[in-house]
Amino acid sequence: MVEKSWILENVVEKSITNKETFFIPNEIERNNQKINDMVRLHFVLKNPSENEPRAERMWVKIFETIENKIKQYKGHLTNVPVYIKGLKIGDIIEFDADNIAQTIIKKDNPYWVDSYEKKALVSKKYFEDNSTIRFLYREEPNNEEDSGWRMFTGLEDDEYANNTENIKVINVGYLLDKDPSLLEPLKNGYGTVFERLEKNKEWIKVEDWIKEE
Question: Comparing C-alpha atoms, which of 122, 41, 120 is closest to residue 77?
Answer without folding.
Answer: 41
